[in-house]
Amino acid sequence: MKEVYAVIMAGGGGTRLWPLSRRTQPKHLLPLLGAETLFYSTVDRLRGFLPPERILVVTTADQFDILRSQALSIPDKNFLLEPEPRGTAGVVGLAASVLAQHNPQAVMCVLPSDHYIGNPEAFLSALRTAVAVAEDGYLVTLGIPPTFPSTGYGYIQRAELLPGAFPQPVYRARRFVEKPDEVRARQMLDDGEHFWNSGIFVWRVDSILQEIKRQMPELYQVLEQIQGIWGTAEQTSILPEVWRLAPIQTIDYGVMEHAERIALVPASGLDWNDVGSWDSLFLVLEADEQGNLVRNVEFFSLDSYRTLVYANERKLIAAIGIEDLIVVDTGDALLLCRRGQSQQVRKVIEWLKQGERQEYL
Amino acid sequence: MKEVYAVIMAGGGGTRLWPLSRRTQPKHLLPLLGAETLFYSTVDRLRGFLPPERILVVTTADQFDILRSQALSIPDKNFLLEPEPRGTAGVVGLAASVLAQHNPQAVMCVLPSDHYIGNPEAFLSALRTAVAVAEDGYLVTLGIPPTFPSTGYGYIQRAELLPGAFPQPVYRARRFVEKPDEVRARQMLDDGEHFWNSGIFVWRVDSILQEIKRQMPELYQVLEQIQGIWGTAEQTSILPEVWRLAPIQTIDYGVMEHAERIALVPASGLDWNDVGSWDSLFLVLEADEQGNLVRNVEFFSLDSYRTLVYANERKLIAAIGIEDLIVVDTGDALLLCRRGQSQQVRKVIEWLKQGERQEYL
């Protein structure tokens, strides 16, 4: 019986959009690109593809209330609460274990909750192809055709075409490439064989559990224990201590890089962005005639260009003679960053952690 | 009988240090350069020169309480309250009229309340010379020897030496020069004949009243009426309607530019600054090793240089790769300005006035 599920990963904290993203205000809960949060948009774009009962949300207990309030159609039992975040391998494993109790042949679409997708129809079209490929037992990844030599994304190289009657060409994957330098990024852009790793994966429950068993036996052991207690009276009391034994790992490193039978579905025209830094907003949001991106700000501009001005509370900001800046105000904190250098925000985070400035994290 | 008074002008609003200076928070009430306000420092630097009973403060009623709280030694009756600000000509005229009732030959030292003076001893030394010259009936102005080709100050050209036994050379003044362009500023710096107009004036009460009578007869008429009611039961009820007839004018334009018997006392080594713009703070405050001026801010800096970072409430500010900026945060408003362009802040003020954004003024 063909059953398709979406598994939305919504447990992360996220520091790369500091000072807006905080421990208590993770990126997927920010109304970063409009009136809606990235999480809401992630759920919303599945309409017409899956009924709400087929959407699982993996998160932590402290985010449950707010996430549920943004996705009221999803049944409470579909929110899988991690006792603590253990990385995306744990998220995937937990969801797969829960689904396996019901239907090991079900297909699960693993979706980050904090990405931007400008064209949901193109996304669903690629997802449908991926589901068809996954039913044949492949671990499928959506690859985004690169549009510029990004050094901020990981890449996947395609191998030969996969035989089969799919709605669009599908490839085997040759290998995963970590974030490259600019020279390598340009090569990969030019050779036409490389795709951005979207972090969107589609597979059958039994396929992924088999790979976890082979490559991450410690995690698999944890998952077996969880299957024994999930839905029983013991779940609440035992889950935390079992979960603590799960290795902290991403699904990319833990499974995908050395997995067998990986397929790559090129996902064209998605207008996809992982919103992984303040600089990325220049690719997603529309600038005014001076190239300025202004959000939630009463803005006065004189000879000022190509600047992002963002506040989380209504604020008056006056700019005189400034260019190529990123300015983010959250009341208690202010980020001033040269455009192109927003990856360095992690240095601020390190400083905050060292300096007993926990309230700003 | 030789009597010397100080008249501190503390009624202005001031917009040039927006967003920190506001209608309700004028520049002289800001702790801009340290823990004390500029007004407090202005009073404080007169210690040993004049007793508090000889210090008059001209201001408006709404500032009376806070000014008094910062200068408790000055008697209440020494605060002269303008019903509304009418420019420095009005301030001077009002103080002169009040002093004339008591002693027309008294010398008054007119002092702005919002300037920086790094060396109070040099200031008092110049002031003593000015008092001696003023006793001979001159209108005396303190001229600051320029140290760089400033386009932000007015200048005064000296004429021939004034004969007399003064503690230092004193000149007649040839003419007042408005804020020059850079070429002209450099010429004046080089010729050694020009001094910055400090806005500090010293004269006998009868000398200035005579010049006001000659050059500003409308104002003089108002002052005569005020002398008739000052200190009587009618003062409170009649002063506002009389005061409204005083022309709005500065003492520079209204009197000094065409006055007779003007003397110029060069005031060297004062380390004087009118704190007339955010850029001026770079001349007054001490920068860190990266050239950054940081006040009231928990500051993280990465590859950031020559930037002023100022907040009026404790705030965390992180700077990455920025240079030559002026950043001023007041909670409700934020100024971002290229260094060297802070004169343009007046454009923000114009915009605020046009746009019904009175709360930010």
What order do the helices and strands come in, and which of them pair?
The structure is a homodimer of 361-residue chains.
Chain A: E1 4-9, H1 38-44, E2 55-60, H2 61-70, E3 79-82, H3 88-102, E4 107-112, E5 116-117, H4 120-134, E6 139-144, E7 155-161, E8 171-177, H5 182-191, E9 194-204, H6 205-215, H7 217-229, H8 235-243, H9 251-254, E10 262-266, E11 272-273, H10 281-284, E12 293-302, E13 308-320, E14 325-329, E15 333-338, H11 345-354
Helix pairs in contact in A: 3-6, 3-7, 6-7, 7-8
Quaternary structure state of the chains depicted: homodimer
Q: Total helix count of chain A?
A: 11
CATH fold-level name of the largest domain in chain A: Spore Coat Polysaccharide Biosynthesis Protein SpsA, Chain A
User: How many beta-strand elements of chain A?
Assistant: 15
Number of domains of chain A: 2
Rg of chain A: 21 Å
Alpha-carbon distance between the termini of chain A? 46 Å
Biggest interface and its residues per chain?
A-B, 34 and 34 residues
The strands making up the biggest β-sheet of chain A line up spatially as 6-9-7-8-10
